């Protein structure tokens, strides 16, 4: 009987540790609350040394990254489709080499010290090829990234490593 009680205790302890593993420190939570004081339904996670808050604002899913010092690193807003793009970026995409590809997702990424980047994820029907296209707000294609066989999260390391 003692073996079962000890096993149950260890299981409960492990479950409680994992439930709080992604809770950010107070400095991160404080910065987040200053930026988004009315945010609710926040889910926290960790990504490559950053704390990431996921929530919905004005109908858009947002992911906001903070470093361990509580400084904002970037915000990703899922725009879902080309319909949400400015005419400049939309025209750049439809006149570019990937215009005939299927758009899977459109994301705006904002930074504290850089201009925003619009990332359009495209693929082809019946082929396992996926690319991310990185546009400036002025419609200039900065780069493409093959994400066919990788987990293509747009975390801070995507931008800081290049």
Explain this structure to me?
The protein is built from four helices and eight strands. It is an alpha+beta fold and 162 residues long. A hairpin with a 6-residue loop joins β5 (102-110) and β6. The model is unreliable at 2-20 (pLDDT under 50).
Compute the number of strand runs. Answer: 8
Low-confidence stretches: 2-20
* Helical run tally: 4
**Structural shape:** elongated
Question: Strand order, biggest sheet?
Answer: 1-2-3-4-5-6-7-8
The CATH architecture assignment turns out to be Roll
Q: In what range is the share of β-strand residues?
A: 35-45%
Can you tell me the CATH topology?
Nuclear Transport Factor 2, Chain: A
The main pleated sheet reads as: 8 strands, antiparallel
Measured as a percent range, the helix fraction is 25-40%
Run of helices and strands? HHEEEEHEEEEH
For the record, the count of structural domains works out to 1
Structural class of the secondary elements? alpha+beta
């Amino acid at each position: 009987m003692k073996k079962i009680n000890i096993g149950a205790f260890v299981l409960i302890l492990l479950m409680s540790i994992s439930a709080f593993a992604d809770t950010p420190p107070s400095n991160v939570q404080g910065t987040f609350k200053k930026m988004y004081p009315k945010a609710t339904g926040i889910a926290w996670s960790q990504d490559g040394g950053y704390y990431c808050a996921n929530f919905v604002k004005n109908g858009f899913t947002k992911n906001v990254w903070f470093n361990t010092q509580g400084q904002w690193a970037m915000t990703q807003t899922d725009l879902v489709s080309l319909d949400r793009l400015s005419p400049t970026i939309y025209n750049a995409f439809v006149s570019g080499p990937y215009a005939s590809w299927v758009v899977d997702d459109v994301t705006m990424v904002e930074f504290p010290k850089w201009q925003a980047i619009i990332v359009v994820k495209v693929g082809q029907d019946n082929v396992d090829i996926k690319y991310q296209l990185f546009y400036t707000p002025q419609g200039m294609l900065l780069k493409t990234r093959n994400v066919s066989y990788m987990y293509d999260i747009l975390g801070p390391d995507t931008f800081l490593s290049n």
